[in-house]
Design goal:
Blueprint lengths: L1 H20 L3 E4 L5 E2 L4 E7 L12 E7 L3 E7 L6 E7 L4 E9 L7 E7 L14 H13 L17
Parallel strand pairs: 2-8
Antiparallel strand pairs: 1-3, 3-6, 4-5, 4-7, 7-8
Length: about 160
């Protein structure tokens, strides 16, 4: 009876272990991640090569402007282990793509695209005491003597 219970438990947990091994990667089509307003970013979603019999979980995506305003979301449709997500924006700012899998509370992959970074404005005005604050902090730091001490630590990775 006990052996049968462990066998059933093992069969139930096996797909969960298999899910953990699939690591998706999300990459924009411009290596720099910089785009001009109106230009479309295409993210390629790739999966690591699944082992024989490995279950690939269902992935969902969410694309937002500046991490707040929703642009699109849905289920990722893989063809031969890859998928493409696309979006664009007409103004300066960021697009953030997040990939999630069922049952995981946090995204499993995130990538961004920045549009016209030189035109992004501050989200709030500079505080009146900004320069005085940093001048004081830099003076405070200058009073701390630079005296680094190196200490050899045993390598525990190869033990």
């Amino acid at each position: 009876m006990r052996l049968a219970s462990f066998a059933v438990l093992g069969l139930c947990l096996a797909p969960l272990v298999a899910f953990a091994e699939v690591k998706p990667k999300l990459s924009p089509d411009h290596a720099s991640g910089v785009y001009a307003p109106g230009e479309t970013v295409s993210w390629t979603v790739t999966l690591g090569t699944p082992e024989a019999g490995e279950v690939v979980p269902e992935f969902t995506y969410k694309i937002t402007q500046d991490g707040k305003t929703p642009v699109s979301d849905g289920t990722v449709a893989f063809v031969n282990g890859t998928a493409t997500l696309t979006a664009s924006r007409a103004d300066a700012g960021a697009l953030i793509a997040e990939l999630s899998s069922r049952g995981k509370p946090l995204p499993v992959a995130t990538s961004g695209a920045i549009y016209a970074p030189e035109k992004i404005k501050p989200s709030a005005p500079v505080p009146a005491d900004f320069d005085a604050f940093w001048k004081e902090k830099l003076a405070e730091l200058a009073r701390v003597p630079i005296n680094p001490e190196l200490e050899k630590i045993p390598d525990t990775k190869n033990t």
